[in-house]
Amino acid sequence: MKIKIVGLFVCMLLITTILPITVLAGDEENPEITDVTGDARSYLDIKKAWFYEDPSKPQMLYTTIEITNPRVIPFKQHLVVSWQMNGEHYASMLGIGYSLTQWLAYVSVVGRGSFGDPKPVVSFIEGSFDTTKGTITCIIPKSTIGNPQPGDVLTNTRSQCFERFGFWGRLGFTNVFKYAFFDFIGKWQLEDTAPDFVLGYGLDYIIQY
Fold it and tell me: What does the domain layout of the chain look like in residue ranges?
């Protein structure tokens, strides 16, 4: 009897230890990515970001970023959610102000967006921008992001919102010097990362459908 009790306790301990890491799906109340606000300009200041799926549309993956005060006027904004799967880098993004004919451009990206890397593969997708709720949602066909299957794990989750100007912008999403420089600017900085760059990544997301 004593052995059974010990065994049950060990099982419960394993479950409570593993469960937070292997949460099946995030949502607005349980986002994979969170951030402290007030460390960037309000239209780039990330509150949280999350992944989700719709069982009626299993061919799609959704990402949503919630921002303090999103705006459509500042040009060359990048509002990004990024992750890795099976060793490849992926991202969804709303680009604002790159074209007068398509001011809001939603895209999915395969490949890292850092300076010196091979050019990533970009696909135009659909999305929505709710300035009242402060949310940006990308509707991503799974065919454009490596065809993830149920049980596949999206790791190294992160959100980054920034404005891109010339060569400075070409340094990409993960330039260490750029983050160090902007850290001194505080709430006026033109870039925000969630979680903070030095804290690593958000929670994993497991594909459901």
Answer: 25-206
